[in-house]
Amino acid sequence: PTPVLAVVGRPNVGKSTLVNRIIGRREAVVEDRPGVTRDRVYYDAHWAGRAFTVVDTGGWDPDARGMAEAIRAQAEVAVTLADAVLFVVDAMVGITDADEAVVRILRASGKPVVLAANKVDDQRTEAEAYGLWNLGLGEPFCVSALHGRGSGDMLDAILAAL
Ligand code: GDP
Ligand code: MG
């Protein structure tokens, strides 16, 4: 079986867009409004001659429970099934309470985590993303999933973590 990378983060941070970058195809569904990705969709990916499986997470029933609780539950499931986690934050928004809650779950899991600072479309946002070092998850890899910026270094770090 190939190693499994779970992509975790708040709704709308660009997880599915980044998954499409990683797999090199447009199969993960990107939505302008949060909350519509189905729970845990699996994709085959390759980088630098190695194969791995990417799991795009998301999806919850907004009527059934609150968003923060849903994000926590999603992260809990993701860490159990993954060999490594790609934690995606929105560099334009910065860190929210929901992000902090996910970080605690990721830390407790002991699984390797790669931090992606997404939506770094320009130089100014890259400067703001520097504050993400404070999460204690190591280097934030600045990427723009939309424009394809920076994903090579992030993928190298993912392979090292898997
Ligand atoms: P998900 O809910 O985390 O899976 O997020 P999606 O991949 O569905 O993206 C949510 C929205 O953010 C969409 O409108 C995307 O086009 C947008 N988005 C994703 N990546 C980027 C990026 O790198 N830069 C910008 N400006 N927008 C992005
Ligand atoms: Mg999605």
UniProtKB/TrEMBL annotation:
GO terms for biological process: ribosome biogenesis. The keyword Nucleotide-binding applies. GO terms for molecular function: GTP binding; ribosome binding. GTPase that plays an essential role in the late steps of ribosome biogenesis. Belongs to the TRAFAC class TrmE-Era-EngA-EngB-Septin-like GTPase superfamily. EngA (Der) GTPase family. Associates with the 50S ribosomal subunit. This is GTPase Der. It comes from Nocardioides glacieisoli. The gene is der.
